[in-house]
Amino acid sequence: MTTKSEILAEIRRVASANSGSLSLKKFIELSGLPERQVRGRYWATWNEALAEAGIEAKAFSTPKSDEIAVIASISQLIEKLGSWPTETQLTVERYKNPSFPSIHVFRRLAKEVSLPAKVLAYCTDSDNLSIAKGIAQIKVEAEAPQESKSHDSIAGYVYMMRSAKRYKIGKSNSPSRRYREVRLDLPDATILVHTIPTDDPSGIEAYWHRRFADKRVRDTEFFNLTASDVTAFKRRKYQ
C-alpha cells in the first residue's frame, strides 16, 4: 500500500512534469496509482490532495466525482443535525471525522455552485434524506430572486408539507422552525413541499383551506390532494 507521503511526492513530481497543472484523471493516468488510494483514503477531494502537496488548485473547478462526494457529506450531516450546518459545525464534524471535507472545500464549492440547490437535487434521489431535502428546499427558495423580494411587507409564510400521502397546509413566520417541529410530531417522513411569502398569513392560509375544503381530513390542517392541487399551490411565489 502506497503511503500518504509517497503519494504527495508523486503528485509533486507529476505536477512538475506537467507545468504545475494536474487533474485527478491525468495524475492517475501518469502515476499508475489506483484512484481509491489517492482520493477517499487520505483526502475527501482531489483539490485537498493538491493543497497538501503544495500545488495551486485555484485553476481547477471541483471535479464532478469530488463534488458529488462533498454534497453527499453535507447532505448526511444536515439529515443528522436537522438544520443547515454552520461553519463551526462543519469544522467540528471534520475534527471528529477526518474523511469529512474541510471547511475550505465547502467554501470553494460554494463559489462555484449553489450548495442548497445541489443538496436538494442529491436528496431528491434518496429515500433516506427527507429532512435534508426539506431544509435544502427552504434555502433554495430563500436564494431565489422571487417576485416576493419586491414586496415591502412579508408578515409570514403559508407552507405545504407532505407526510405519507397527506398534505398539511399551515402558516408560520419561520417555515424551517415549523418544519422541524412538525416532523418530530408525525410518525411518517415529512417533506416541506413549498412556502408562500405573504403579508397576510392568516388570510392566505384560510384561502387555501377553503379552496381544498372538500379534501380536508376532518378538523385538521391535513388534506388529500391531487398532483394538480399541489402544482397550483407551488405556482404561487407571493400571495
Provide structural commentary.
With 239 residues, the chain is of the alpha+beta class. Strand 1 and strand 2 (166-172) form a beta hairpin. The chain contains 12 helices and 4 strands. Strands 3-1-2-4 form a 4-stranded antiparallel sheet, sandwiched between helices. The radius of gyration is 23 Å and the shape is elongated. It has 3 domains: 4-52; 64-129, no CATH class; 145-234. It has helices at residues 4-17, 24-31, 35-38, 46-52, 64-81, 87-96, 103-112, 115-124, 130-143, 175-185, 201-211, 227-234; strands spanning 156-163, 166-172, 190-198, 222-223. The relative contact order is 0.09. The model is unreliable at 58-62 and 145-151 (pLDDT under 50).
Secondary structure layout plus pairing:
Layout: H1 4-17, H2 24-31, H3 35-38, H4 46-52, H5 64-81, H6 87-96, H7 103-112, H8 115-124, H9 130-143, E1 156-163, E2 166-172, H10 175-185, E3 190-198, H11 201-211, E4 222-223, H12 227-234
Antiparallel strand pairs: 1-2, 1-3, 2-4
